[in-house]
# Entry
Amino acid sequence: MATKGETTMPKTEYVIEPGKQDITSTIVLDAPRELVFKAYTDPELFAKWWGPRRYKNEIDKFESRPGGSWRVVQVGTDGSRHAFRGVNHDVVAPERICATFEYEGFPGHVALQTATFEALGNKTRLVAHIVFESVMDRDGMVASGMQEGADESMDRLAELLAELKSSR
# Structure
């Protein structure tokens, strides 16, 4: 339980069924959906929350429109570099983003993610559905620590949204 002055981080729920090639995550964020959508589509904001804290995001390309491509390089404190890229297939503000996702360190394994942003008053239910090319690809992503990284990203997003709301 949070004490006065602390915020409780929202918890992401995951559906990862054995033998299936998809993952669904759901989280309710304490911010209006327009603000959550902006944090997903504005490269400066995206760089502040995406991925584990031990990485700094370098935005190489970030075209938040249908057909636009994106590429983000995560730079570790040890100098390691991990690049991710994809193409936005559908961007409907502030409702939905459908994009491919590929880790350049393991090329040729492309996933398709659809993120939907549902308004719940002044909160937002964010549902991310990721479909992998195979069960093996999905299981590999899970084994790589995807859930811990995603949880840390959502914590960072919640912190950023709280800052953005307080500065309005």
The CA atoms of residues 22 and 131 lie 4 Å apart.
